[in-house]
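If you are new to this repository, start here. Below is one unmodified record pulled from the training split, so you can see the exact layout before writing a loader.
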Amino acid sequence: MAKKAFQIRLPDSTSPLQSDVATIRVDSQAAADRDDLETLSLVASRAGNAILIMDASGTIEWTNDAFTKLSGYDPADAIGHRLDDLVFGPSTDAKTRKMIAASLSRGEELTIDVLQYRKDGSTVWAECQWIPVNDDTGTLSRWIVIESDITRRRQTEEALLKAKRSAEANSRSKSEFLANMSHEIRTPLNAILGMTELALTTDLSREQRDYIQTVKTSADALLELLNDVLDISRIEAGKMEIEEVDFNLADVVRETTKALAVRAHEKGLELAVHMPMTLPQELRGDSTRIRQVLFNLIGNAVKFTEEGEVVVSIEEQWRTDTEVCMQFSVSDTGIGIPADRLKKIFDAFTQVDSSMARRFGGSGLGLTITSQLVRLMEGKLWVQSSEGKGSTFHFTLTMKMAADRSAANVAGSPSKTSREAEDSHSKAKQELTGYRVLIVDDNATNRRILNEMLSHWGLVTTLCDGAATALKELESATRNNTPFDLVILDAMMPVVDGFQLAQMIQQRPDLKPGTVMMLSSADRPSSTSKCEQLGIKTYLVKPVSASALLEAIYSTLETPQSPDSDSESSSLSDNPFTPAEKPLRILVVDDHQPNRKLVESILHRRGHHVRSECDGDAAASACKEETFDAILMDVQMPGRDGFSATEEIRASEKNSGRHTPIIALTAHALQGDRERCLAAGMDSYLAKPLHAADLLELVEQIGRGHVLQASEPPTKTDLQRNEAFNIESALRRMGGELDLLKEHIGYVLNDMPQLMRMMTVAIEEGDAKQLQIAAHRMKSLVSSYDHEEACELAQQIELDAKLERLPDAASRIEALRPLVQSFARAVDDYLQAN
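And here is the target side for that same chain:
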């Protein structure tokens, strides 16, 4: 019997069964949604954070209990109001308001801290998170806002910030106190030093001399400590500024090592400098601070080295058209630094071990100051050392190339510009190539450095480490008929020194040694006489710079003319007031009578004819009335200044074809002054305080048609700071003419009280221009006597006036007043005593 097939027929879409099933499903989903909404509503209501639901415009539709607790507003009070209208108040940050308004308009999520006002008027800090909710079409439909109470956190942050500011203020106050006390202590200390130095020049018993010498040594140590404290306090107070001036790197290194050479040579140390001949020389940076860093590092190396050498090396890391990065290294063969002290060596008051201060002395601040200065110059400082094997301190600096590398160097600098140096080296290669030189020095570093310099100029070198090998080389050269043209001997060598070797060579006429030059690590009085006795023409003290060595080689080999020689050398440095061979007609333009009279007196004593004017308009008129060989033009004057007057003079000269040399005078080299001088048509640049010899030399050279570029004033060094001011320095500037100094002191005593009154009145009347003029004149007066503190204050007052910061200037005037009064009393006493 066949089985019957069963078939189940599902209802079609229109069947009642399907409709019922769909309805059941919708009802079930709605019930589930209601359960979820009830659950979410319960969670939101009981949440610890305040939660609000707002419509798209920001009007509140629902709040939870936490919002009521946070704000004090019940749901009935809040619903229907905008949140910002409800809780924002007068202390709510305006920037925060704008950010929230922008978020509302753009529909963007935002998290921000807001100071909100409660219903009772108290305030609370809340972290608010604004979350936009979009519908299926992407249109903003509502906002969810979640708020957290962060009042305690904000109070803690504000307390910490207040404590930080208080600590910084206390630190600044401490640093300013230390700086002021250092200045105050230095004043009597300078008197102690001065009187002990005077006492040491009198007839004393040996016991008395020992006592006074001990006083002087202790005072010197105390002054060095005060200078360190002053530097570190200035750095901590944020008053140490890094300047940018054009300078010559070789000059900076030479001046620094020269100042420390005696100290090194007294200990029997070799002090050597290795500077590749290809290094750029004319750079732009803070030469004073670079000198100070080198002085500290080299001084430390000498202090902690008992025997061996201290070597300063400079290497180029990279170079562009406008910048160069250099690495400076100072290595020694001293005691070294233990590994556990390397990380602490740059901390204040830290030395290698606790006994170092007793054994070597010092404040322990030198390396701290050095590291801070390198940091301020955006460089990097580090040390490599092994205990008992010496140390090497490295620092890198990125410096700009000098703006005008073809321009003259810093005034008073004997070095050449990059272009001149390149020409000099090129000429040396042409004239010296092939000369044979024997170098005899027991120190390998010195031999390497000398070999590098001489080879650069084309000389053929042979190196020897002592007398025995030198004699063998001389004998070999004689046999091969290739004698040496020059023999460079180190004076201080073991077993047989340079003088003994020179004498041995002289006693061997068969050796044909050529010309002998002596180098020494100690500038002893007997060395010169020994050289004269042995017929040695040239004697140099190490470390020897490249320019000094090249000049000495030219002189020793008697070549036609050294590239460094000056065919028109002046005798002004010997006596600046000998009558000039050809008197010149000079126009002097300066609004400040003491400056004008000083320049007049200097020029008159040399025999020149002088016309004086006190402003730019009068100067322009004078040039239309008569011709001058040169014009000395003050840069800053009331009314028409020196720049404007120069431009008018140059404009009027276009028709006549005449060009009168104009030398700019200024009391301080402000950044950009040099460029402005050139742009205005000036020919050269001289900074006040004026030196009689420098003034006369520049005027006479430029007045006779020699083309000179505008130069910059010499930068001051912080290596010696022994007096608040220096009357003897002013006397030297005036060529040693005591009556000229007395005349200038008379102007000082007459003008300084008037200038102080002028500044006080300018402050009272709010006249910034008059204040600037008075401060400028005061700066000129005190700078003539190297009164650095008064000069710096006057310069700051001048800058404040220029920027119309009269309240700042007023406080500085009060600081300047006692300095001016004490200075006036001192110069008056000097005037009465002389």
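Two things worth knowing about this chain: The first strand starts at residue 50 and ends at 55. The radius of gyration is 40 Å.
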